[in-house]
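## Example record

The block below lists the input lines for one assembly entry, exactly as stored, with component labels intact.
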Amino acid sequence: MLRVENINAFYGDLQALWDVSFQVNEGELVALVGPNGAGKTTTLRVISGLLRQASGHVFFRGRDLSKEAPHRIVELGISQVLEGGKVFTEMTVLENLELGAFIAEARKVKDESLKWVYQIFPRLEERKSQRAGTLSGGERQMLAIGRALMSKPKLLMLDEPSFGLAPILVQQMFEMIKEINRQGVTVLLIEQNVRAALELTHRAYVIENGRIVGEGTGEQLLSFESIRSAYLGDGNV
Amino acid sequence: MFEGLMQNLVFGILMGALYGLAAVGLSLVFGVTKFLNVSHGELLMLGGYASFWLFTLWQVDPFVSLPAAIVFLLVVGAIFYKLLFGRMVRLTEGEKIQKTLLVGFGLSLILQNLAIHFWTADTRSITTWYSGAVFAFAGVRFPLVRVASMVIAFIAVVALQWFLQRTYTGKALRATVENWEAATLVGIDVQHVYFLSFVIGAALAGVAGALVSVGYSIEPTMGMSWTLKSLIVMVLGGLGSITGTFVGGIILGLTESATGFFLSLTYKEVVGLVLFILILIFKPQGLFGTQGR
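Predicted structure tokens for the full assembly:
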């Protein structure tokens, strides 16, 4: 469904991604894990068109996204949730969700999508007329994901959905993500919380210093010595 | 004494409504695009002349020709955006402010001089058959044309507010103001939003200019003063609040006329700048602003 091929990307003169390639198949829940500054967010930004790669291609359902404007990429079915959610704080929860259905196709089925999102996140329905700025961190994250779902994406990309959440909420958040995936949305997740991410997902890629350094099923990666020592804190020091 | 003061304050409010309208346009453009368009006053001047020439050449009533002034400024705004300002949308916020200041100053000089060249430096105004009409209330005179102008300015601001709050496109504008990346990721074409806000800002300047040409007077060099006043009002009212900006305009109008009454008309221009500095020192987010700045 999504095929990233040999991406090189820069911030100014600084190369952030080196020859990054990976793919996500329809219906999968895939994680991209790695330490802070490894290039996870940059990878998502290239896919969603917020950052243009210097070379390489992103194919989504056979279509080359390299020349598509970012709002067109949303129309093609990719929805990215930014780190920390970035909800529109001055607007109500409902307005945020309605804006999620901004693209023409999604606007037609707005009411249905709204029911769907409320079913996944009942909390959002309770808070629908509240200003988004008054929500807690966890609720904002739910709203951001809900807003992304309102565009009826085929691929949902989540940037650190557990960021800043209490451990008990992290567990709930991951359950919700699993549920969204079970309902047919392909998910690409990036996480610093490596263990939780690897337990959750079908497959994962490990990225370090802008390069993909490992791939496998969650279980496989969890048993890798280097991963264990680098991210899970139980290797030989 | 008291009636004289009341009369002055009424004139201040009537003038202030136009300051407010001009500032709302500037503030909308700045809020969305972070372009500080210092040629905003010249756009207003063009609106004034559009209305003036339509009246002088073809006797079109200035209130009837308002839509024409709006369309004219929409087109002018679109041209300036495509040729000049649109090239700067990808810069960082700080660079945008700097570079648009330079472009704006250049543009304002060019427009002023073109206006002097083609239309002479004379002060002009529109005198219709009803221009002298006045109604009195409690000993205070209300010039009909200026009251009508204030009503139109108010309607324009309410319409803009409605557009921003109730329509999908308006919400897209507000979303872009808050976070252009998040806006992009819900499928909003932010480049188009920038363009749209710029031409709407130009159209609002056009309406203000047309109203100035009928209730007051216009001249090619009027733009700088209007830009300055719009800037003062934008800071006074605070970013992010359309109605707050409009009220800010009325406060500036009132302050100016009170100064003229109690001190001297000479200080009228100064007091706005003093107000500007005081606001920046004591309440930099403005009186009604929602965004810290």
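The mean pLDDT of chain A is 91. The beta strands of chain A are 2-11, 14-24, 29-33, 55-60, 63-64, 78-81, 155-159, 186-191, 203-208, 211-217.
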